[in-house]
Amino acid sequence: MGDPDLGLDPVTGSISTQSVERACEQLLGSMPLQSYALVVRCGSKGVYLAKNGGRSRRPSLIKKKRPANHARGGLTLDMDMEALFAGLLDGDGDLEREVVPIDPGVEMWLPAYFGEGKEEERVVDPTGGGNGFLGGLAVALARGKGLEEAAAWGSVAASFAIEQVGMPVLGKDETGRETWNGVLIQERLDEYVKKAKRRWA
């Protein structure tokens, strides 16, 4: 983004959250008038989500059929005014307008599963954490989850990749359900969502 200060906080040497937010704001501000989302992974600081708002869908391309108005020229005394406005009025005689939902956008930080502090010590090897995050995010988006929930899936997937050296250990519990590193995926996801949900509620 051409910002020499972007990235690290000069005092602490850690990721500057203000710089990340500023860069996302600049980038979204330069986008055409469409909805875009940015997902910025920031290690133990978590993930920053930024999505510009606007129309959440395009206006309907299916036009209602209106009664033909064969009037030519200006208004005359014998013109049927009700027929002229018939296609514009609803059953109560009010103007009918298509309601287009507006997406307010998103600007939020979600915590890393192993965030700063003591939990951060549980990170054994960060190799594969980014790929794990992107895989979880992509699968959730493909399954129709919202951006916030998809980022939660990504954070949990990354947590399995970074808590040991090498690939997560696949297994099964006593009932035959799949586990990663001895943990049920859904249990870890539920735990994370409880921790993070208050930020996107």
Secondary structure elements and pairings:
Elements (H helix, E strand, L loop, with lengths): L16 H13 L7 E5 L5 E5 L2 E2 L25 H5 L16 E2 L2 E5 L18 H14 L4 H16 L7 E3 L5 E3 L2 E2 H16 L1
Helix pairs in contact: 3-4, 4-5
**Could you give a short account of the major beta sheet?**
3 strands, antiparallel
| N-to-C span | 31 Å
**Range of strand content:** 5-15%
Strand order of the largest sheet: 1-2-5
Number of strands: 8
Query: What share of residues is helical?
Result: 25-40%
| Broad shape | elongated
| Secondary-structure element order, N to C | HEEEHEEHHEEEH
Describe the fold and architecture.
By secondary structure, the protein is α+β, with helices and mostly antiparallel strands. 32% of the residues lie in helices and 13% in strands. It is built from five helices and eight strands; from the N terminus they run H-E-E-E-H-E-E-H-H-E-E-E-H. The strands form three sheets. The chain has a three-stranded antiparallel beta sheet with strand order 1-2-5, sandwiched between helices. A hairpin with a 5-residue loop joins strand 6 (170-172) and strand 7 (178-180). The chain is elongated, with a radius of gyration of 26 Å.
Notable features of this structure?
elongated, single chain, alpha+beta, 13% strand, 201 residues
What's this, in brief?
By secondary structure, the protein is of the alpha+beta class.
